[in-house]
Amino acid sequence: MSDLLHRIGLDPDRLLFGNPLSDWTYALGLGVATFLALLFVYRQLSARARSVAGNELPRGLRLLLRLLRRTRISTLLALSLLAGSKYLDLGTRAERVTTGVIVVLVGVQLGLWASTAVRFYLEDEAGGRGHRSQTMVTILQFVANLAIWSIVVLLALDNLGVQVKALLTGLGIGGIAVALAVQNVLGDLFASVSIALDKPFEIGDTLTLESGFTGAVEAIGIKSTRLRSTSGEQIVLANAELVKARIRNYGRLPERRSVFRFVIALGTPAASLAAVPEIVRAAIAAATDARFERAHLVGFVPRGPEFEAVFSVAGDDYARFLNAQQAIHLGIAAELERRGIRLAPPV
């Protein structure tokens, strides 16, 4: 290396910022070699990742490929500069600045990797549930990113010579005042995290609250949840209120069940009354999606003999349930009319 410097007319022993030119040359060569080696490995792995992107891969390998796609060239450059700078004596101040800048760049990369890993695991746990879990992923990702980048910023400031302890003390005192001022917002934020983790309801579920509101969940945000009521208007509720409220979630119904009663007119012959349960059973069996459970004469009221029937419709689709219920009631009415069995008049 000294011979090369002599040939181009430079003195290898000439000092530049306290280091001979020969040392600068070695440091530059080491940095460039390190960068080229890291860049070669990065591009080879990237090419390999693209070639297997469409295949079914183990979870760990899929995470590794996701992290690789979030790797920045600036990180490779920072590592190369770190390798080259170790060959030089830059002095305490210059070395502190250089190391601080490199640590910041590496810290940003670690933050990107951490954020990517969190999102990967959240989406992997959500599976194929689509938009129902996407909002939950967004909420948890927001909280995770807030924690990750707060740590990255504090570490960066610490390496740049900022007194982090004093800063944290000041932020702690100021944070108490801010927390008191925005306690409602923070309450809604933590409630959204609770909803995301506990999953008492998801987008698409139909809810009835103890306050009397009923509607389908349209969106779950950081501060509020939006329902679309049966009459069409949008209902906006604070997440903190939802966490405290008693909720009936019709979206988790394995089936909808209907229990209904009707009264036959006084004076109807016993043989006709005995045929009523079979009429109900046949009407339920004829309805799409309905499952017959029972039909009985349960007693006598002043208006006449009273019957009770029960049927179920699979799923939580309310419109399908109403269609089946309507078909059953019309079927019972038509068969009673055909047989000459009259319903008791209303009171």
Structural class: alpha+beta
> How many DSSP helices?
11
Quickly count the domains: 3
Computed over alpha carbons, the radius of gyration is: 36 Å
Shape: elongated
Helical residues, percent? 55-70%
First CA to last CA: what distance? Answer: 111 Å
Strand order of the largest sheet: 6-5-4-3-7
Could you give the order of the helices and strands?
HEEHHHHHHHEEEEHEEHEEH
The major pleated sheet works out as:
5 strands, antiparallel
DSSP strand count: 10
In round numbers, the mean pLDDT is: 78
Give a quick precis of the structure.
By secondary structure, this protein is α+β, with helices and mostly antiparallel strands. It is built from 11 helices and 10 strands. β5 and β6 form a beta hairpin.
Supply the key terms.
elongated, single chain, 59% helix, 347 residues, Alpha-Beta Plaits, 10 strands, SH3 type barrels, 18% strand, 5-stranded antiparallel beta sheet, alpha+beta
